[in-house]
Amino acid sequence: MPESHYPEVRSLHLFSEMEDDNFRTLMRGSYVQNFPPQIDLIHEGESSDFLHIVLSGSVDLYAQWNNRETSIATVRPISTFILAATIRDAPYLMSARTLEKSGVALIPSQDVRDIFDIDAVFARAIVRELSQCYRGMVKSHKDMKLRTSLERLANYLLRQQTRAGGETTFELPTEKRRLASFLGMTPENLSRAFKGLRPYSVAVDGNRVTIADADDLKTLAKPSPLIDDYSS
Amino acid sequence: MPESHYPEVRSLHLFSEMEDDNFRTLMRGSYVQNFPPQIDLIHEGESSDFLHIVLSGSVDLYAQWNNRETSIATVRPISTFILAATIRDAPYLMSARTLEKSGVALIPSQDVRDIFDIDAVFARAIVRELSQCYRGMVKSHKDMKLRTSLERLANYLLRQQTRAGGETTFELPTEKRRLASFLGMTPENLSRAFKGLRPYSVAVDGNRVTIADADDLKTLAKPSPLIDDYSS
DNA sequence: TGCTCTGCTTGACATTTATCAATTCATGCG
DNA sequence: CGCATGAATTGATAAATGTCAAGCAGAGCA
Known about the structure:
CATH superfamily of the largest domain in chain A: Jelly Rolls
Oligomer: homodimer
Number of domains of chain A: 2
Shape of chain A: elongated
Radius of gyration of chain A: 19 Å
CATH architecture of the largest domain in chain A: Sandwich
Number of strands of chain A: 11
Mean pLDDT of chain A: 95
Strand content of chain A: 15-25%
Order of helices and strands of chain A: HHHEEEEEEHEEHHHEHHEEHH
Largest sheet of chain A: 4 strands, antiparallel
Distance between the termini of chain A: 32 Å
């Protein structure tokens, strides 16, 4: 990997505190690649040869079974993905594809495991990252099992509004078909769900969403930090 | 905690390799308690004061939202739960209640974090445990999003059969109402789903399930190691 | 034995969600 | 500009799932 990329990788929680020698060892074996949109980076079931880091663009994590497919998460810069598979040296449970033109760093899994064994600071950082991922997954699971699709959409919109700094109007960061898959519904149903939110002051025009009265929407959505706050 | 319990706790992957001094420090601050059935041990939203270890009996992890409740996992001896909350010093995302009379060890979270910071072997063991939990959660999530309730039940039964050593007939380890909640359906629907599996050689009598022809059932269930193999 | 409790099952019905087909809409391109 | 493409929407319908109410069955107990 060219040294010009070191600072941005180093700025990740995962790498920011570790020994410089170990960091440089990790980087030396790695490389950065640019991918066009819609390229499969990894596929579930494969063995995990590299830890991946999204440096630019965005990557969709998804899974398939019996000819069905579902989107599980979107990874945005700068974060890692499939850390758990790398650590356990186990097969990927999810596939990953670029959503747009994206830069991805690849660090050999074996190097990660080696450094993990000798750098306690790095190991602790991994624990923090993993526990965050775990809790995120628990929250998604609760969202899925406890809410109807309309409620999931309502809460999703409120989260996006927060991400957009609380603006009344904001852009959906993703295609609607993919959003539907992420929310566990069909594109047709997502369309209807948007209409179903109109009585709660939600208006949609293309990718532009307006929530005129967030408090009104919250009476339906009933957001909870134990499901919707992805920062804790 | 009485020293008589040390060996069984020590036998956990999480503790088996760590420094003896550190292990004893952890144990000294801990205690063991016996609980009757249906006792709430922790409740979601509370701060995580203790890492819990199930020594005997069984514990249900569940979550609530808006007056709805769903069962997320069952913890059986000897395993820990809510490790991620302990490590992050964050609120519990799930509640836990005893399903039967159960013995539980409680280790102060602050002690776990302290030892975690000074014992690299322990930190690594935590990583392994956490990554296992994470992958388990991903699998549950895929199960939920990619399969119908009938398919989830079919695969659940095949997993239970494996757990029971592959016997044609085995016992459900849990109440049907809780199984329904775990599988993300109502008890009524679970009843109907069992009937729906009769053409696939599944017979139910109370808690006793017979799968006459597992291959037949598999044509419906299409089990996949990337969803159903909880050991990897 | 009968009683009571609780969980399970069943049936009728309502709601939610998916599927299929057709149409509209936006976008890029020759 | 017109056309082709793929996404989004809409309507009609079907399938899956939930809800409500009633009945059934087994466990514990007097």
